[in-house]
Design brief:
Length: 237
Amino acid sequence: MELYRNLRVGSRGQDVAGAKRAVYKLLARDNGKWWTYYEKMPDKSRKTFGFRFRTHLIKAQKQMAIKRDRLGVFGQYTLNTLDELKCVDHISVKLLNTAKPNPAEQKFEKLIASMESMSAHTPGYQLGGGHGILLSNVSPYQKLDCSSSSSKALYDAGMFPWSTAIVSGEFARIWGEPGEGQYFTVYANSEHVFVRLHKSRWWRFDTSPHGDGGRGPRLRFLPRRTSSFTKRHWPGL
């Protein structure tokens, strides 16, 4: 049962890769004899075990919509093998097999990944840092300001139509479209810009602490006032 416990997926789907490794171990063990053991279980035990196993696979499937292409979680070969060995019912295999990445979620995931990188490696804040150079050359290890870090994150996610950073006043006027987004909203005025994250455990990506950490581009849990800012969003997000 140790192998079964390895399949447990956290509520945020953080162990999807672990689930993948455990499935491969299952398939490799004694040429599939593990499932012969499963099939010989009493009906009651088999039903309980099978239900729990399917539950964990479905949890992994929910995360796969975002991570499948990037991490290669549950590739087609694995799904075919699962189906051939009758490891789970056809409904579960179909759920895994037909999961299609949501383009909006993929963009948002890339945005969060870029923000996480800057948040983890930033040496701090520098006014003008990251401006005047290609965003492809901007490093998460260098000091950035509010507009360059926001530009970099959006550029990495494919939601920035320019190759160099713009300033906060330009965010308020020309980036994206007016209004609040579903996944995130850029709040900007002539002096500052930050990103409000609606579908994330973090509240915002911001260089200003407002009681949450030090200065520099970081993901932050605590909210801040937004009344003096213009709302902008990316089409479809």
